[in-house]
UniProtKB/TrEMBL annotation:
GO biological process entries: proteasome-mediated ubiquitin-dependent protein catabolic process
Chief localization: cytoplasm
Subunit structure: Component of the proteasome complex.
Pfam families per record: Proteasome (PF00227)
Protein name, per record: Proteasome subunit beta
Organism: Entomoneis paludosa
The organism's place on the tree of life at top rank: Eukaryota
Annotated family: Belongs to the peptidase T1B family.
InterPro entries, sorted: Ntn_hydrolases_N (IPR029055), Proteasome_beta_3 (IPR033811), Proteasome_bsu_CS (IPR016050), Proteasome_sua/b (IPR001353), Proteasome_suB-type (IPR023333)
Keyword Nucleus on entry: yes
């Protein structure tokens, strides 16, 4: 079994009209044994930027602490908030620095830029960065998530429509994957603030 699927997980982010949403499942497992059902994989790094980290749980928490530290240094030095594009590049460099002994985590960056336009990017464990206009996925059931997103995604959705699309895609995908699931959490980011909703899924 790959070390990337040792703890399981599924993360998805999708862009709408002047809004962006990111969602993850809640399961933490050791291979097929479930250990926890409320493990956090999506983290708020600034009022308009969230990062999802899928992969080995210990590296997820290490990377989250490192990102918070680097963002704090940037804010002290520059006296402004980091933009999602800058964060994405910084995270890419951070991962590539450790390419010979990498962090086993595949991040997703989702947020709104200075003009409140959606920004989505994802990368592999050594920081190969790709930006998308519609949706990005990562985790053990990324194939299922891609299929659901390609079926359900429509451009320029409102925050309410975006939540419905994202929730249906996540729940349908994790139901077909033994390594992820146990409900989910969705964060919808708009220029007015962030709405967080919890999803109840199959408890098996």
């Amino acid at each position: 079994m790959s070390i990337m699927s040792y703890n399981g997980g599924a993360i998805i982010a999708m862009a709408g009209k002047d809004c962006v949403a990111i969602a993850s499942d809640r399961r933490l497992g050791i291979q097929l044994q479930t250990v926890s059902t409320d493990f956090q994989k999506v983290f708020r790094l600034s009022p308009k930027i969230y990062v999802g980290l899928a992969g080995l749980a210990s590296d997820v928490q290490t990377l989250k602490n490192l990102l918070e530290f680097r963002m704090g240094l940037y804010k002290l030095k520059e006296e402004r908030e980091m933009s999602p594009a800058v964060l994405s590049n910084m995270l890419s460099h951070l991962l590539y620095e450790k390419r010979f002994g990498p962090y086993f985590a595949e991040p997703i960056v989702a947020g709104l830029d200075d003009k409140n336009q959606p920004f989505l990017s994802t990368m592999d464990l050594i920081g190969a960065n790709v930006c998308e206009k519609d949706f990005v996925v990562t985790g053990t059931c990324s194939g299922n998530l891609f299929g659901m997103c390609e079926s359900l995604y429509r451009p320029d959705q409102s925050p309410e429509e975006l939540f419905e699309t994202l929730a249906q895609a996540l729940l349908a995908a994790v139901d077909r994957d033994a390594m992820s699931g146990w409900g989910g959490v969705v964060h919808i980011i708009t220029k007015d603030g962030v709405t967080t909703k919890e999803l109840k899924g199959r408890q098996d």
